[in-house]
């Protein structure tokens, strides 16, 4: 059987309280009474009501001050309060509502109107509580799903990479007297092991909450370092990366060089891989632009990485930043954007991915707060 809603009536006129009490009890509510503000606070401490009908004009401590104290207490701040008043001044009504009351009823009390208002606000409060509970359940479900997805992705990727290593070990046993094939097999094993190490390192970066080291640096220099390093390491595939630096001359900000370089490196790699397989290096243009933005009095550095590849596939558009989301079949893919989102948020920034304004391909935008110290 559903428990009765509890209503606390606070009024220093016994006649008003008794009449209202009978009406509410007849409607199925459990009613308690208090005759002043101090008694109201004591009653609430003893047993939390679902709603309070609070008279404004009372001796010692009026209804407005009583409501203010209720709202200042974390244990009672969410209890709905309806003011009961004979005062019709607009300023008084606004002042009362600003203390945290949800409604007001004027005297002489219309019993049917009062009952209707009480029912409505109790129903709204129930809906609010159900909504909070639903959000908590959804949050737990998302966390569970995310953990399950990540665990499955980690197991799948590591198993595949270990399979590559085991497979080449078996081949090496058969090719002990063939130096060229032996060297090739060892190189493939080394590549697979590096992929596993990189995967573990990325996972480690996701779970740390330690403060990152910040120094005064030029973001454009960070980007240039990434492009130069990527060009050396990727067998010429990044020869068409161009940098457009629109930051002021000698611009610097306190930030994490490692975080910026990690994020830009992932975004450039994603841009390169967005082109159809087999596309020559010279036909894989990547453009990185840096701009200084001002919004609501705050300055941000925008780093935009744009490609002219195949764009965002519809199957991953809604969950780009989830771990192991990728349209590529190669082992170890699909974790870069997750790392980017976590890393950039760790220094107070953000990342968005959308269509390239030029009409073809994708643009990934990093926004980094400008800090002077």
Automatic annotation (TrEMBL):
Alphabetically ordered keywords of this record: DNA-binding, Phosphoprotein, Transcription, Transcription regulation, Two-component regulatory system
Q: Which residues carry this modification: 4-aspartylphosphate?
A: 55
Q: What is its EC number?
A: 2.7.13.3
Group of enzyme by EC: transferase
UniProt-listed InterPro entries = CheY-like_superfamily (IPR011006), HATPase_C_sf (IPR036890), HATPase_dom (IPR003594), His_kinase_dom (IPR005467), HisK_dim/P_dom (IPR003661), HisK_dim/P_sf (IPR036097), Sig_transdc_His_kin-like_C (IPR004358), Sig_transdc_resp-reg_receiver (IPR001789)
Q: Report the Gene3D superfamilies cross-referenced here.
A: 1.10.287.130, 3.40.50.2300, 6.10.250.690, Histidine kinase-like ATPase, C-terminal domain
Which reactions appear under catalytic activity for this entry? ATP + protein L-histidine = ADP + protein N-phospho-L-histidine
Q: Which residues form the Response regulatory domain?
A: 6-122
All copies of domain Histidine kinase, residue ranges: 153-372
Q: Name one Pfam family in it.
A: HATPase_c
The protein's GO terms of the molecular function aspect are: DNA binding; phosphorelay sensor kinase activity
Xref: PROSITE patterns: HIS_KIN (PS50109), RESPONSE_REGULATORY (PS50110)
Q: Which PANTHER family match?
A: HYBRID SIGNAL TRANSDUCTION HISTIDINE KINASE C (PTHR43547:SF2), TWO-COMPONENT HISTIDINE KINASE (PTHR43547)
The name on file for this protein is: histidine kinase
Organism the protein comes from: Puniceicoccus vermicola
Q: What is the lineage of its organism?
A: Bacteria, Pseudomonadati, Verrucomicrobiota, Opitutia, Puniceicoccales
């Amino acid at each position: 059987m559903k428990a009765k809603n509890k209503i606390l009536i606070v009024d220093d006129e016994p006649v008003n309280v008794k009449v209202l009490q009978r009406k509410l009890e007849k409607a199925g509510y459990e009613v308690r009474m208090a005759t002043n503000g101090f008694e109201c606070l004591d009653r609430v401490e003893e047993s939390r009501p679902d709603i309070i009908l609070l008279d404004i004009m009372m001796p010692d401590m009026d209804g407005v001050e009583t409501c203010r104290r209720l709202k200042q207490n974390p244990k009672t701040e969410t209890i709905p309060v309806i003011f009961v008043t004979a005062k019709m001044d607009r300023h008084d009504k606004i002042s009362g509502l600003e203390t945290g009351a949800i409604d007001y009823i004027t005297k002489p009390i219309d019993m049917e109107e009062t009952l209707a208002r009480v029912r409505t606000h109790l129903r709204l409060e129930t809906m609010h509580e159900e909504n909070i509970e639903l959000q908590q359940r959804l949050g737990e479900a998302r966390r569970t799903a995310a953990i399950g997805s990540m665990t499955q992705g980690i197991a799948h990727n590591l198993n595949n990479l270990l399979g590559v290593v085991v497979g080449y070990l078996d081949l090496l046993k058969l090719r002990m007297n063939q130096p060229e094939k032996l060297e090739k097999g060892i190189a493939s094993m080394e590549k697979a092991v590096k992929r596993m190490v990189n995967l573990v390192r990325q996972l480690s970066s996701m779970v740390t909450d330690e403060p990152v080291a910040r120094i005064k640096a030029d973001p454009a220099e960070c980007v240039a370092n990434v492009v130069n390093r990527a060009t050396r390491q990727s067998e010429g595939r990044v020869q068409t990366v161009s940098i457009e630096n629109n930051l002021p001359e000698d611009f610097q900000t306190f930030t994490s060089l490692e975080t910026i370089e990690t994020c830009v490196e992932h975004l450039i790699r994603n841009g390169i891989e967005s082109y159809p397989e087999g596309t020559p290096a010279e036909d894989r243009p990547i453009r990185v632009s840096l701009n200084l933005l001002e919004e609501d009095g705050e300055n941000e550095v925008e780093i935009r990485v744009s490609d002219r590849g195949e764009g965002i596939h519809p199957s991953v558009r809604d969950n780009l930043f989830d771990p192991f989301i990728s349209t590529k079949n190669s082992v170890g893919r699909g974790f870069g954007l997750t790392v980017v989102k976590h890393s950039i948020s760790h220094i107070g920034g953000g990342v968005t991915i959308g269509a390239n304004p030029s009409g073809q391909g994708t643009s990934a935008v990093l926004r980094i707060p400008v800090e002077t110290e």
